[in-house]
Design goal:
By secondary structure, this protein is an all-alpha fold. 85% of the residues lie in helices and 0% in strands. The chain starts with a helix and ends in a 5-residue tail after the last helix.
């Protein structure tokens, strides 16, 4: 009985790692759809979000079942609590990738990103991928040292987000209100995606140490 119990606990970690893989793929493909105005890729990001949602539903079901049957305590209790929190953050990251893809779909066949901002969006996409990849590695290995690095890694995303706003607020912005709204939303989606990756890493720290980083 206890072996099955611990297998279920380990299975939570496996599912979370799989979620990180899926939401990394989603933000990568959403960035491509956005920059290339690729409708097929945008649609695939939107439709495949159901895979992320399904895994999160499995995590929730397992956690509620374990809480009812096994009444976990100590480290095991921290694991189920953090698994639920991490799953929630990862599910939201999948949603944010979908939001990016929907902007790409809305503006197809045109690109929602003006030429002067393309390099910034490329960088934001790359940082988003790097953050979720590192967060996934931390979940799999319970690497506290790497998890503690993510807030600093996220600073690069914040700098790019501020750069977008400086461009949007410049007096010579030539692309009109519609484009400004698109870019504002897209910048926010990437910035929030990164914040959720940081929260996943912070939950790894809590799981291992019992305390949350300041």
């Amino acid at each position: 009985m206890r072996d099955a119990y611990h297998e279920e606990l380990e299975g939570l970690t496996d599912k979370l790692v799989e979620m990180t893989r899926l939401v990394r793929s989603a933000i990568s493909r959403a960035t491509t759809a956005l920059l290339d105005s690729d409708l097929a890729i945008a649609e695939s990001v939107i439709s495949r979000d159901e895979e992320v949602n399904a895994i999160f539903a499995e995590i929730e079901t397992t956690i509620f079942d374990l809480m009812a049957r096994q009444q976990p305590v100590a480290v095991d209790l921290r694991l189920v609590i953090t698994a639920l929190r991490m799953g929630t953050d990862l599910e939201r990251m999948g949603d944010l990738a979908v939001h990016v893809a929907k902007v790409a779909r809305l503006r197809h066949p045109e690109s929602a990103i003006p030429a002067q901002l393309r390099s910034t969006i490329v960088e934001m996409g790359q940082i988003a991928e790097a953050l979720v990849t590192k967060a996934g590695s931390c979940v799999a290995s319970r690497d506290v040292e790497s998890a503690l690095e993510l807030p600093q890694d996220d600073d690069a995303m914040d700098r790019l987000h501020r750069r977008l706003f400086r461009m949007l607020l410049s007096k010579d912005w030539p692309h009109g209100v519609e484009s400004a709204i698109d870019v504002t939303l897209i910048g926010r989606y990437y910035e929030r995606y990164a914040d959720h990756a940081v929260r996943v890493a912070q939950d790894v720290v809590y799981l291992v140490t019992g305390s949350r980083p300041s």
